[in-house]
Amino acid sequence: RNFYYITILRDPVSRYLSEWRHVQRGATWKASLHVCDGRSPTTEELPSCYTGDDWSGCSLQEFMDCPYNLANNRQVRMLSDLSLVGCYNLSVMPEEQRNKVLLDSAKENLKRMAFFGLTEFQRKTQYLFEKTFNMNFISPFTQYNSTRASSVEIDKQTQQRIEALNFLDMELYDYAKDLFLQRYQYMRQKEHQEARRKRQEQRKILRAKQAHLREQSENNSSSTDYIGNVERW
């Protein structure tokens, strides 16, 4: 069988706020094993941000203040090969080197995917999916601009803090958006070229039919003239 990896990326600030709201309502990822190189991280490698059953009711400030929060740069971490940096063991290499390896890995894996979309471009995402896999959805994608994240009002300083906490995701998203639009433009050009080729083929067929009809008409005219002459003779 052929398996295709696909993903949908989201604006990092909106995604971060959405996850905070999700956690605030009591969501957890306790079932996630975070297995890497055949083992789960130790509590020392991946400490918890909260005590108790969940982190419900946490403020945005508390959410941002936890240095072990997996919401930080989640998209890069989930797209990259963590084994390249020693999984969750932060002592394997310097932080700057680790960040570069993770970002490069995430970009490469994203580029090699058969398809990826962007939450902020629903119609283009649908178009690319349909063209990539040669299948059509029964209804058009809807662009929802009103989300739980959009309902959160934050000041400029808080936004800058979130961007700083997700600086790898910010860079990945810029890369993804550029690659996504390149793929979209390529598919559109390919579609236009195919449509032009079909039009040219149709015109060619039409000209051939018209030439054939003219030839038949001329042959019929010649036959009529000959029969008329025979009758006179």
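the 2nd protein, sequnce then structure:
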Amino acid sequence: AADKINLMPQDFFAELCEQIIQHLNHKIPGVNTAELCQRMQTSGIEINAGDLEKIANVISFLFSTAARNSLSTEELVTTLGNAVSTLPKHAVQVIRHVWNERSKSISVSEDARSMATVGQFVDIKWKLGVAVSSDSCRSLKYPYVTVMLKVADPSGQITDKSFEMTIPQFQNFFRQFKEMAAVLETV
């Protein structure tokens, strides 16, 4: 990941580090590497989403491990220097600055660790569609519902999931949500 960090300008790397810290503090559900990658590519930086996800995972692991071990800024930088000699100077400066400013705010409670093993729901969008025709059938008139979910996986990466349902499937889905809402009202 160190060679990929070389591709990132300091401002984008700092933004990535800041999002990771916010995620570790449970302020945001995850790091939107796809959006950051798109902005970087628009700026003329050649990096792909997979590489950016790897960088985010490494930095997230670095910060969470440092928090778990209560490392000071100097201990973190020294450990980085011993472990990774190929890390670019600008990246070490950003890590030093972010950790110095924000390390005290990271909480690593047991509840947070156990909760982090499951993905977190971020957003839902849906749309109603009608399949009018296809090559094999002239007149379908088949209504369906497309559901698009944004989910932050345990590492903090935000991914989009989508699926389609027939109207009876959607009605069952809706009924189950109403049941969940009713149960939550009693809690």
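Residues 49-68 form the longest helix (20 residues). The radius of gyration is 22 Å.
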